[in-house]
Amino acid sequence: MPVLIRALVLLILTVSLSGCGYNAIQQKEEGVKAGWSEVLNQYQRRADLIPNLVRTVQGYAQQERQVLTEVTNARSRVGQIQVNADDEASLKQFQQAQGELGSALSRLLVVSENYPQLKSDQSFRDLQVQLEGTENRITVARGRYIQTVQEYNTYIRSFPQVITAKIFGYQP
């Protein structure tokens, strides 16, 4: 009988300890999802600026069709990817497409240096400032996402939350 009581007390203690962190795990998981959504929002903001940027550059730099086409195609590829933060292959493909888009935008801005009239155009300068701000926002959002994921992973690997995480199937 004492063994049964000890086992029952141990079971109650385990369930009590593991239940303590369930809500916090859910909150941290939601924080990770919100952080990823913010990263996607900032990437979308950048993609939304591109058509205006391309139109503005086209007006001044007709002969730079190749660079303009690269930017447009890179934006199109980014828009076609259905990214899932839990799928490593999808995430890698998304990051690669974002990198290609960033490179194409950089080439476009380098080409714009050859056109003084374009550089003096107010709408082009405004778009450059918006693009620069968006790149900074992307960097900040990614940093926050990484920090949130790190906090989540640390939390669910700590005792007693590790018990709750295993019971309910939470993974780092």
Automatic annotation (TrEMBL):
Domain of life of the native organism: Bacteria
Positions of transmembrane segments: none
Major place of residence: membrane
Gene Ontology CC annotations of this record: membrane
Location of this chain's protein in the cell: Membrane
Presence of keyword Transmembrane helix: yes
Membrane topology: Single-pass membrane protein
Keywords of the record: Membrane, Transmembrane, Transmembrane helix
Family membership noted in the UniProt record: Belongs to the LemA family.
Protein name from the UniProt record: LemA family protein
